[in-house]
User: What shape does this take?
Amino acid sequence: MTHIISESSPAKRWLEAFPIGNGHIGAMIFGGIEQEKIQLNDDTLYGGRKLTADPPDAGKHIGEIRELILNSENNKAYELCDKYLLGNPPFVRSYQEVGNLYVDFEQLGEVKDYKRVLDLRTGVVHINYQEGDASIEREFFADFANDVLWVRLSSDKPVLHVSLRLEREKDAQTSTKNGMLLLTGQIVDPWTQLQGDGGYHMRFAAGARISTDGRESVKGGTLTIQNATQIVMAYTSFTDYCFETLDFDRSIHPAETVEERLNAIDFNDYETCKQANEEYFSSLFDRVTLNIAGGEGESLDITALQEEARRGNYVDMLIQKTFDFGRYLLISSSLPPGTLPANLQGIWGEGFDMPWGADFHTNINLQMNYWPAHVCNLAETAELLNQFLEKLTIPGAYTARVMYNAGGWTLHHLVDCFGKTCLHDGIWGATPMSGPWLARHLWEHYEFTGDKDFLRRAYPVLRGAVRFLLDFMVEDRQGRLVTIPSASPENEFWLNGEKMFLTYSSTMDVEITLDIFDKIKLAAKALHYEDDPIIAEVDEAALKLPPFQISKNGNLCEWIEDYEEVEPGHRHVSHLYGLYPADVIKKDNPEIFQAARKAIERRLAHGGAGTGWSKAWTD
Assistant: This one.
């Protein structure tokens, strides 16, 4: 079965564990024999707090910055950007794990026939093995309807002797209450130079409740069960994050919500809940079938299949399983009862300072998370992103006004759950084009669903992104409408013997502008809004945009001039946005189309597409 991911040994590290989730609760199942570790996440648990990080004097200096760039005084422009455009504080805080649930097992003898299986079609993890003369089974799934993680441990003999405990390394306390494991806490963020003031921030709670035919006892924060043939556990978590305000809501009491949810669970309904969850999950997963492998290699454990593929064997099967795994992750990380869209790591992450903060990177990563949503007939998974974009228009409008003296709304290359839409991390991200980029996802949702009620709801968001662009662009010395400041995300070029990020109207900016201009016109036509005055502004502005350039190497230029790349094999291929995900570079313009092809070839020839997401974009 190609929808099965299996291993014949427990996970030794986080990346080897099997992920399950329901949009809200994320869990990584390790499958250890002496100790089961379940690493836990809540999609709303972030460090930091809501604050206005937009630099207050940016709008006073943006004109000067533009003049310097147009005069090729990029270094001076960089200094002013660093001084006046960078957010305060410049970094956001990280997504954090809830903690770990540990299940310690008393050993029964020799272990044989171990198998750990993730069923991508149903969202269930199964672990089976023989220990001594007992057959042991563990089962895990994240319940969408009841918003709990279910765990069932079973044996054909009354030999299960286990202890369960919840742990978190910091900012939390554990206890037991009426036989329930509880973890309660509040994130205490330290002051850092890059992240700013610390303080007592998001509150959270998690809990687990069990039902068993064994003998229960409680000591400290540990539940112990002896002589059981079955143990069923329900786990959930909650925070005081409020999506409506993108802020904390101190009237929310996470521990009370956790207790109420767990006390409402009827353990006699386990099989019913499991069946209903499997039917729901498979109804989404079964909408698409990819069959390119013909069954060869499907029974191999995933690490064995990967090793075979490195030798050139069963490559199609690995591709097929990877495709299914991607759809599985989107279903598991971006549906209600989840609140936020999938972040850099979906909803799964280990520790308290995750890679890139596991925030919402909006210069490719958040967008790429949702590329499979509509083409794989999973439009429901895009709704959390749609709702998030609607919320971001409020802080995004403030950013547009304060930083660029513009109407509409926008954001830069990342945003956190509190809606910080200003420029973060560094001046290499000084391009406020992620609002228009993300707005195209709303049109795509309509394009695949045909839902005009949704399009009416989305039109103000699209219009706001276009309004920003029309106000943000200025005329250059040649009378062209250009975006300033601009960059090609994270890439540099040589100018006067120095490395530069900043320019004006990078190729990607022109492509994003053409694309969102096209989408607002299509939306206006579909809704009979052709008389909207902004459409006439769009038509006039489109005629004044810079044309695409072809470099001396024959490839599509990445910037408005034929600059030499510092890194020709750079991981980003931002200047090919017009080829995909947009459609502004087409075969009906063969010269530019072939230049785009040569741009891909040039990237790959210089070692590009080295990371997974970059390879997905380039391929």
